[in-house]
Amino acid sequence: MESLAGAEFAPQTTYLNTASSGLIPARSVAAMKAALDDAAAGGRVTDAAFASVEETRAAYARLVGVPARRVATGASVAVYAGLIATSLPPGAEVLTAEGDFSSLVNPFAVRRDLVLRSAPLEELADAVRPDTALVAVSAVQSADGRIADLDAIRDAARAHGARTLVDLSQAAGWLPVSAGADDFTVAIGFKWLMGPHGTAFLTVPDDLGGLTPVFAGWVAGEEPWDSCYGPVADLAHSARRYDEAPALFAYVAAHHSLALLHELGTGAVHAHNSALADRFRAGATGLGHTCLPAPGSAIVSVPGLDEAAPRLAKADVQVSARAGNLRAAFHLYNTPADVDRLLELLPGA
Question: Do 167 and 185 form a contact (C-beta atoms < 8 A)?
Answer without folding.
Answer: yes
